[in-house]
Each structure stands twice: as C-alpha cells, then as structure tokens.
Design brief:
Elements lengths: L2 H17 L1 H8 L3 H12 L5 H8 L3 H13 L3 E5 L7 E5 L1 H25 L1 H23 L2
Antiparallel strand pairs: 1-2
Helix pairs in contact: 2-6, 3-5, 3-6, 4-5, 6-7
Length: 144
C-alpha cells in the first residue's frame, strides 16, 4: 500500500471538505468565541478562564481577548469567586445561553444532514473512523 499517495488524497479531500460553507458551521464550534460559549454552556454554570483556555489549548492572553469580546457583546459576565478572590468565574448571560444553543443546533443540523447524505453504513463507518483517529491523536501528534 502506498501511504504517501493515500496521504496526498486525504489532504486534498480534507481541503475540499474544509472549504465547504456548511463545514464552517461545525468548524466554528472548535475555536474562538463560539467554543468558549459552548464550553461554558455545557458546563451549566461558572467556569474558570483557565479551564476554557486549557481545553482550547490557547494562552491565557488569547483567552482574555476572547472573554473581553464576549463580555462586550453581553454574552458573558465575569465575577470574582467569593471563595477564592484570586479566581475569576465566567458565566453566560441569557443572551449567551441563547447564542450557544443556536450555534450548537446549527452544527448538529449540519452534521445530521451530512451523515444522512452518506447513508447509514457510510455514516457509521465515518463515525467509527473518526473515533479511532481521536483515540490515536496522541500518537499521531507525537510523530511530528
């Protein structure tokens, strides 16, 4: 098997897939303000900025920029933790909750449509392979 040729095809198809405008709805959930909103929403309460930045694998400075943007838009609030005044707690506002729900639903709808178009067998196989890649991710990134 020629893995170099397969890798070239994989990269070509990955690039074509990423250029799809519907894929952007899913990609938005993987970074930036939308990820921070969704992460906070899924935690159902207060989160620490360090939790979100660790999950996103970004610096605390970049996290501050993201949180400033969300706060300026009225989507989050930040307050000092009453139990530990060194910590800042981030919470979603009602508008932030609604925006998180909307982004989550949009990404889910795109994913459902994509999987339906593949058909049951290919959809299950794609999800199986993506799960396998997720399991192998530490080994894959270590090979760089």
């Amino acid at each position: 098997m020629d893995y170099a040729e397969l890798a070239g095809q994989f990269l070509l198809y990955s690039n074509k897939f990423r250029k799809n405008r519907n894929q952007k709805a899913i990609d938005e959930t993987l970074g930036g303000e939308v990820f921070a909103l969704l992460y906070s929403w899924k935690k159902c309460g207060h989160v620490l900025p360090s939790e979100v930045s660790n999950e996103m694998r970004i610096s605390s400075a970049r996290m501050t920029v993201i949180l400033n943007g969300l706060e300026n838009k009225g989507l989050i609030t930040r307050k000092i933790d009453s139990e530990d005044r060194r910590r800042i707690l981030v919470s979603l506002t009602p508008a932030g909750i609604e925006m998180a729900k909307a982004h989550s639903q949009k990404a889910l709808s795109v994913a459902i449509h994509m999987l339906e178009m593949l058909g049951e067998n290919d959809a299950r196989e794609l999800v199986r392979i993506m799960g396998r890649l997720a399991e192998l991710a530490p080994e894959i990134t270590g090979a760089q």
